[in-house]
Design brief:
Length: 314
């Protein structure tokens, strides 16, 4: 079974106004509420591919109940730890050409709740896969990531990590199945200028450093430059399709979910990477998560380049 762990979920409230001014009542012309969180998005995208998962993490209050209900309404099983307080609501306001983003802290998570989550993860089997992604809530130390990676090593389940914390480096010795940094996150971990990775050979060398530390696979999101995959034997690059970018926040989640999902469904590595790159772009070109309908057309724009032990071919 696939599990997705979201420790700092949110309801994202999107509102649009003709004008948004201080000291007056501003009335919206559009509003939309979305259950959100990086691995919650992964569960939603896997479901769109016909792949089941169990969503876990921390939820609290009426907002937490809404998120759980939205997941279950979509047919996604849930196994969250209930916490005191209220799961956060983030607000995104669009008024003409102006945009405002208000991201809240959310509840503080007790040690008791954290121990309950670790206990749940400890019940996974060697046949399972766990996605851990996104920010950590108040009260939760980065050390929880290391605890989870150690459990993956002990039990043998596949761990997929998409976190910006420097603690990820210490998790690599536990040989996670896949990590998904952006090129900027990769640069920060290795203390280099992100512009260095305009040279693909420098990006390959950086990926090799993390593979040598224990990561089994890297999937690097590069925005408009496309995607890179590396596993120590092969390096694959894809270009990104062209389109009007509307929403970059969930594109990486879509990329990760559809890449791993495609591999689970038996697609070749090359086809999985092309499909995932198109799907991630599809989400970037829409206000919400992609419905995947335009992915076949976007795939036609993508060029794949393979590097096998230094031999480049297209």
């Amino acid at each position: 079974m696939i599990y997705t762990c979201t420790m700092n979920p949110a309801i994202d409230l999107f509102t649009e106004f003709e004008n948004f001014e201080p000291h007056v009542v501003n009335r919206s012309i559009f509003e939309d509420y979305q259950a959100n969180g990086k691995t919650i998005n992964i569960s939603f995208m896997l479901k769109k591919m016909g792949i089941d998962s169990v969503a876990t993490g921390f939820l609290g209050g009426f907002t937490g109940r809404y998120i759980q209900e939205e997941l279950e309404r979509t047919g996604i099983a849930t196994d969250f730890v209930s916490v005191d307080g209220i799961t956060r609501i983030n607000t995104f306001i669009k008024a003409g050409l102006r945009e405002f983003k208000a991201v809240n802290r959310g509840p503080e998570i007790s040690m008791e709740a954290q121990e309950k989550l670790i206990k749940k993860i400890g019940t996974l089997s060697s046949k399972d896969m766990l996605f851990v992604s996104g920010s950590l809530p108040r009260g939760v130390d980065d050390a929880i990531l290391k605890k989870i990676s150690e459990l993956s090593k002990q039990i043998g389940f596949d761990l997929v990590l998409d976190v910006s914390s420097d603690t990820l480096i210490s998790c690599l010795v536990d040989e996670p199945y896949l990590i998904k940094p952006s090129d900027e996150e990769l640069a920060a971990w290795l203390d280099v200028d992100p512009a260095t990775f305009d040279d693909e050979e420098q990006l390959i060398a950086a990926a090799d450093q993390l593979l040598h530390k224990g990561a089994q696979r890297l999937l690097v999101s590069r925005g408009e430059k496309g995607t890179m995959y590396a596993d120590g034997k092969r390096v694959l690059f894809t270009t990104a399709p062209k389109g009007q970018v509307v929403n970059t926040a969930c594109a990486g989640d879509t990329l990760l979910a559809t890449f791993v999902g495609s591999l689970i469904q038996g697609e070749t590595l090359e086809d999985a990477l092309i499909y995932a790159t198109a799907a991630g772009s599809s989400t970037a070109f829409t206000a919400g998560l992609s419905d995947l309908k335009d992915v076949p057309e976007l795939m036609k724009q993508i060029k794949l380049t393979i590097n096998v032990k230094g031999a480049r071919k297209s």
